[in-house]
Structures are given as C-alpha cells and as structure tokens.
Amino acid sequence: MNYASKMTSDVKEGPVITLSNGLSVPILGIGTSPVGGYSHEALVCALKECGIRHIDTARLYKCEDLVAKSVKESGVDRKELFYTSKAWPTQFGYDEVKKTLKKSLKDLGVEYVDLYLLHWPICPSGTKNPKELIAESWQALEECYQQGLCKSIGVSNFEEHHLNDLKETWTVVPHMNQIELHVFNYPKKLIEFCENLGIKITAYSPLAKGKALIHPDVLKIAEEHKCTPSQLLNKWITQKGIITIPKSTKPDRVKENAKIVDITLTPDNVAKLDDISNHEMFSVCVVTQQNIDEWGASLK
C-alpha cells in the first residue's frame, strides 16, 4: 500500500505536507527537546541560514519563552512560521488543557499555534478513568481549534488502541500523530492505520539519537548517493510523505540536517532501510509511568 501523504511545494521554503483540513506543514522542522539542552544559536541558524520554518516544542521542554527570543533574533516573521507545541499528561483535563495552551501562547508570544498535541497517552498515577480524561482533553482541544487558538490539533505517541478509544467521542479527527520513527523503529502498521483515518505523521528522533548514523546499511546507501547519513535518514522519512523534526544543538549539524538532498532513493534502498527494524528493533525514547508523574510535577 502506498500511504505517502500528499506533498506539495512551497516556492519559498520547500516541500510541505497538506493536512486533512488543508493546512500546509513544512516537511522539515527542527526539534527543541531538552536532550542536550536548548541551543539559541542552533535555532537562530535554522531559521536565519537554513530556511527552516517548522519549530517543534512542548510545555515539558520548558523552552517556549526561549524559542520566542530565538525567533525574534532571527527576524523571521510569525506568518512564515509553523509552531507545534504539546500538553503533558499531568496537564490533561478539559480546563487544564485550555489553560496550558494559553500558557504556550503567552510564552511563545503568539496569538495561535499551528498545531497543538496531547503529548503522551499515559495518564498520571491515580487517574480513575484514563480514557475519559483523554477524551475530555481532546474535547478541549477541539474547542480551542474552533476558536482559532490552534490551526490544527493532534496527538503524540498514540497507538492504534488509543486512537480507537478516542474515536468513540471525537468530532474532529486528529490532524497529526507525532511518533518516534527511525530505521530501528518503523511502525508501518500504525502509520497505515493513521493514514487511513486521514491522520498525518511526524517523525521525532529520526536519527535514533545518533545510533542510526553508523549503521552499515545506512553508511553504504549514503555513500551510493554521495550524501551524509543524516541526509539519507531524513530523506528516507520525507520520501514517504512523513514530516521529520531532527534536533541538534550544533549549527553545523543543523545545516546538515536541513539539506534534504535532491536524490530519490531506489525501491531497493527503501526496502533495505525499511527492513532494519525487522531485525534490530528498539526505541530510543522510553517513557514510564514514573516519568509521566515526576516530569509532570516539575511543571507545576
């Protein structure tokens, strides 16, 4: 099955993915997760020198105010940017999600975000009815979407059963599911499931925190196409019509990640990379119940 999303081209900033509501999302973004720390220099470089216009952040990352400062220094106009942010599970609940989104808007210094997500489907300890908590959180996002506080809404790290539960009550189908996706973790069935519902995919940790850069098959195919392993791995993702949001604190690496080279992977190339996770599958982002609670406590 060919589940590649519709990809169009923006003259100024390059390829974009079109969501089910018609909103365009730059296929290449930059992550701001706390791993390695926040880098003002890297984000300014991404915006000012590399033409990146998609910024991925979250309340958990505690850097939305820093993102605002970096954007201001870059001189890039708000209208050119696509902001994604997220509410952590300890911020779930009808009222709390709305408050959290407004905090994001305030810290980012914007009137709306382009995409807002429920960050993880694991609810805080002691939650009596997790399914109900997620449903009312989604209802809050639907209302924020209708009010124009976010131009699109979605989820992150949701598996099929989470989406099926949410499907029972949603009136707006999630526009996006942001998931861990790299050559060691390629959830093809989940991607197809989402695509069949009209839900687009964003890949975080596309380089598997650097582990994918040294895989023999990756090195061999990168050499074949005369590109770097980083460029190859991001191309493997975007060629499927999936958004990629690599993160780095080093401007030189940001520049490298930004160059989705003008190559087309052959069917054999794609099959080889697709197959890696069948033999060497692992996750680089494991979140436990304890993480949900402890990280959430730090946000209060």
Topology:
Elements: E1 7-10, E2 14-18, E3 24-26, E4 30-31, H1 40-48, E5 54-56, H2 64-74, E6 82-87, H3 94-108, E7 115-118, H4 130-146, E8 153-156, H5 160-167, E9 176-180, H6 188-196, E10 200-204, H7 216-225, H8 229-238, E11 243-244, H9 251-258, H10 267-279, H11 289-297
Parallel strand pairs: 4-5, 5-6, 6-7, 7-8, 8-9, 9-10, 10-11
Antiparallel strand pairs: 1-2, 2-3
Write up this protein.
The protein is α/β, with parallel strands linked by helices. Helices cover 40% and strands 14% of the residues. It is built from 11 helices and 11 strands. It has helices spanning 40-48, 64-74, 94-108, 130-146, 160-167, 188-196, 216-225, 229-238, 251-258, 267-279, 289-297; strands spanning 7-10, 14-18, 24-26, 30-31, 54-56, 82-87, 115-118, 153-156, 176-180, 200-204, 243-244. It has an 8-stranded parallel β-sheet, covered by helices on one side. Strand 2 (14-18) and strand 3 form a beta hairpin. The termini are far apart. 44% of the residues are buried. The model is unreliable at 1-12 (pLDDT under 50).
